[in-house]
Amino acid sequence: MILRILFVLSIGVIFSCDDNNRNDSNQIRQLRPKAKFEPADGKVILFVGQELNAIGGLDNYDDGYMDHYPTPAGFTMYTNLSPGDTSFNHVNKGLDGIWSTDDWGDNVSNMSLQLASPNFEFMALAIGLSMVNHEKAVAAGERDSLILKLGQFLKDLAPRPVFLRIGYEFDGHGWNHYDRESYILAYRRIKDKLDSMEASNIAYVWQSTGWVTTPKLLEEWYPGDEYVDWCAFSFFARWREQEMIDFARKKGKPVFIAEATPTISDHMIKFDGSTKETILSNQEQAEEAWEDWFVPFFKTIEDNPDVVKAISYINCNWRSHIMWKSNPTFRYIDARLHTSPFIDEKWREKVLKERYIHSSPSLYRDLMAQTEK
Questions:
Q1: Phi/psi at 52 (nearest 5 deg)?
Q2: What is the pLDDT of residues 201-236, one digit of tens each?
Q3: What is the per-residue DSSP string for 81-123?
Q4: Phi, psi (5° rounding) for residue 334?
Q5: How many CB atoms neighbour CB 267 within 10 A?
Q6: Contact 204/258 with Cβ under 8 angstroms?
Q7: What is the DSSP string of 204-219?
Q8: DSSP conformational letter for 273
Q9: From CA 142, how far away is CA 182, in angstroms rounded?
């Protein structure tokens, strides 16, 4: 009898602790302050990227996402702090793809064309800022002139919200090979410099690959709460291995799925990185992509309404870009949504729901208002 009583009491304590933990977790979610430009729980800012042809919406680039779907809330583009580096016969000047039309192997980019177009008037901008091979130079102050030039450009965009992904996929050692200590110092220096310019329309985004890093390593690479507004990760074939959502929740930060495109594979991806051919205009491949990638993608969003608050879909024909011709993950991928009637219909069913935020004349005010609550 005594043992039975002790057992019942111990079970009661366990359940009580579980209830307390759940209550504490819910309280943390309710009480944590909103990050810069973070929408309400259950709302998701929809971005699309990540080059001129993929996004469309311009006279000379008129078969992209914006030419087939309602205008999303934001668009994603890229630039760098890596002057002198060469990528597929393109020599970086630093801040490439902002004021000039540049192609470093991933098709053409030119933010100034987009920003000058009325079609992009009420859209946030997400920028992937690379500093590959230059994180030590950035940390040492040797790229300050470029940082200040970037800061003035971003500041002049106000009140347009900018999501700045500094050194995106910091843990992609195979392609970015950042030095951890230098990366953290460089990240902090960039934010400190832009803060000194009082550039108030920038949210700072810290992005993992989404599959190679453990919680311990995420902690070791973390620049600090005061330097990170949003946590982020990439959603590709190995999405099951992401640790960022739980990490961000513990840090009290929202999550941006900053890169997402349908890539699927079997267990062999862990050995050679290869994904299956996925060309959405192919009906059979589109149906497989929907079940094996799109369904988990939307489930991840819907299962985490307290933290997953922004996504960026990469709407490009990867296989046509020279950068990805020999890349085992992207060389056989054409992710253009409108090329598949099957995917087109299902995508619309999802993103036209109230959950997903699109472009509107009140977008900037609405995102800032959420921050100020």
A1: -60, -45
A2: 999 999 999 988 899 999 999 999 999 999 999 999
A3: S-TT-EETTEEP-SSTTSSS-B-SSS--B-HHHHHHSGGGTT-
A4: -125, 105
A5: 6
A6: no
A7: EEEEE-SSS--HHHHH
A8: -
A9: 13
Quick count: other Cβ atoms within 10 Å of Cβ 244?
A: 27
The rounded mean pLDDT for the chain is: 92
CA distance 8 to 69: 58
The per-residue pLDDT for 29 is 54
- The single-letter code of the amino acid at 181 is E
Tens digit of pLDDT for each residue in 258-293?
A: 999 999 988 888 888 899 999 999 999 999 999 999
Sequence letter at residue 198? E
Whole-angstrom Cα distance, residue 168 to residue 230? 12
Q: Which are the contacts of 265, defined by CB distance < 8 A and separation ≥ 6?
A: 237, 274, 275, 276
What residue has token string 């699309």?
Answer: 48
Q: Under 8 Å CB-to-CB from 11, ≥6 apart: which residues?
A: none
Average pLDDT estimate for 305-334: 96
Nearest to 147 by CA among 193, 201, 116: 193
Amino acid, res. 210: G
Residue count of the chain: 373
- Domains annotated for the chain, with CATH where assigned, are 43-372 (3.20.20.80)
Q: Which residues make Cβ contacts (< 8 Å) with residue 4, sequence separation at least 6?
A: none
186 vs 30 pLDDT, higher one:
186
The owner of tokens 């990540």 is 50
Compare 193 and 370 and report the one with higher pLDDT: 193
